[in-house]
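Quick one: structure for this chain?
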Amino acid sequence: MHTALTILCSLTPVHHYHHLRLARLLRTLSPLNPLSPLALSFSGSKTRRLSPFPPLSNPPASAAPSSTLVQQWADEPEGIRVDEEWDFSHSSEAESFNFDTSFQSTDLKRLNSPPLEVKELEELPEQWRRSKLAWLCKELPAHKPATLIRVLNAQRKWITQEDATYVAVHCMRIRENEAGFRVYKWMMQQHWFQFDFALAAKLAEYMGKERKFLKCREIFDDIINQGRVPSESTFHILTIAYLSSPVQGCLEEACSIYNRMIQLGGYKPRLSLHNSLFRALVSKPGGSSKYYLKQAEFIFHNLATSGLEMHKDIYGGLIWLHSYQDTIDKERIASLRAEMQLAGIEESREVLVSILRACSKEGDVGEAERIWLKLLRSGSDLPSQAFVHRMEVHSKVGEPMKSLEIFRGMQEHLGSTNVVSYHKIIEVLSKAQEMELAESLMTEFIDSGLKPLMPSFIDLMDMYFNLGLHDKLESTFIQCLEKCRPNRTIFNIYLDSLVRSGNLDKAEDIFNQMHGNGAIGVNTRSCNAILSGYLSCGEYVKAEKIYDLMCQKKYDIESPLMEKLDYVLSLSRKVVKKPLSLKLTIEQREILVGLLLGGLQIESDEERRNHAICFEFNENFGTHSILKRHVHDQYHEWLTSFSKPGDRSDDIPCQFTTISHSYFGFYADQFWPKGRPVIPKLIHRWLSPRVLAYWYMYGGHRTSSGDILLKLKGSQGGVERIVKSLKAKSLDCKAKRKGSVFWIGFLGSNSTWFWKLIEPYILYDLKDLLQAGGQSFDRMSETQDISFDSGSDSDDEASDYNDSDNS
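Got it. Here's what it folds into:
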């Protein structure tokens, strides 16, 4: 903790009198206009270094406040009207649900919050206390978080909960809600603190209305931990705050708060909250939204049982979600359609396309054609999805040529063809093994310049593999590498082809290439394929090495291969080798340290005996989409079963976790000792080139000028230790605080030296994106305002109340 600020000057009683009058004037005028010049000047001079001690002399007794804070609170309406017209922008993909313009929030019900009572300043018996409180109300909003806490700490000898509550309420009144929040958190750490439900509720509402959902949630959890049920307004505003944030995971949290509002609080949410949450659920592309079906059904149930108005898009959105499920519930869709008809709601184009999609998955040609005729009679423009679904439904009943006829009809009707249509028709013809037609359409697809081409290349290679045309498969593989970024799926198909055709030497080269490329990697399918080849050709020594790798990674061995392995292993080993005990390799340990510095989280049980590593990657970052596959492969043996995709699946989730294990205790104690990130005191020993490389790939950014920035959370002292250690390695850098995080910058030629050090450990497919001197757009919004030529930016978003190290 820094030493207290020195007193720059002593103030006379007259000066104190004027300060007190100014504070009273601001309290009187600022509620009328929070953005008035007076209100702005109150918090404008944030660079002044003022004494953390209030004035010691008392102002004249005649300086009593003319407009008290209690009166101002009483004058405010009891209910809080929340603006419900949120921005729910979503992907422009054709498969997203389109809402009618009439789907607006019209509920004007007021949300009542618990009354907050605060003593008037003039009611306090001691004049010196009134003077000190007035001084705190004036000074605290002008300070940064660390200074604010130091000022409050200097008042511990005399300040009471009643005093601190008055200061927090005053900060909220003048719209300095961040200062009010920090006063509240400081109060909670004092020995005299008793939980104040009304204060917590009021502060949570103000934080939520400013969309600061983390602070609002922190207060919400404080209320829950006290055994109290938050007010309806707190539930409502926190849910809306989550919905208004684009941060990954906020939609799930909004659903959780909404559910607890009903199940824990027993409240009946207003119509606008039902509609806002439902709209958020179906505003994503269908592939992502389909997982929210149960939540959408819960909202529908609540609307129905509450007797609230059911908008037509609620029915349409629910049918849309059902149409994306892997298993179609035809009875539920029919029930929803019947309810729409009973309510006099006409089936819109969106609803008809959703029903057509469901028919295509079921192979119900009769119903699909009836829906198609309805679309034609509706007079509206025919969407491209409708053609695609018709192609699919006819392919399901063995009519690929009809699908091709629909495709050509789509080209004539719409005058163009999109990527999804090409993907579907090539998939249909490849599965039907119509080789010449599939090849012709693939050529047409490539010449059109549309992308991505990868799904269609995979369909062609699967067709060639099933037909035993290994030469054509190889040429298609080579063509795919020239036009697309390679992935594991096409390598696995090519590897299977080489093994089946007996070309084991080339198969071995491809397997080693996959294993050596972190962006591709191997999986259960790859290992079983090469193991089958080795066993068939009598390469038993190589087969044992693959077996050892599969044991280490906990890959399942196919039963026929295991029978052969039992015999092979019995020739060289007395006992068949059991799966290896879990233990991190040196490479895995260094990767883990780099990811932890970049923001990886660790979850611990209550006794802190077992710990789980929580890997989370941002789907909007190009670097993360490549890095997540490599990390998933690196820690495959540690992952929970639900974190592993199927053998035939190439889709790695953006979030996956390891099993909870005591082995991670060292990393939890060093990096997450109290459930929050810290920088270990021995971090200087672990900053190897590989650690720095993975830190950069996971939590770093390259600016438009070619500089390299590394994101870091922790204390000022921890950041200084890292900077000192990097400079000891001849890596000159600067540290800059922005909000709750630090950025370590390698500027100019220093970024080149840093790149040369870590380049051998950067994934091949990420080198062009991350090389010093180029331009990357990942994290652009986070770093565009960072300047290392000045001091730290405003710490408004910081939540550290103690700058000392916790490690």
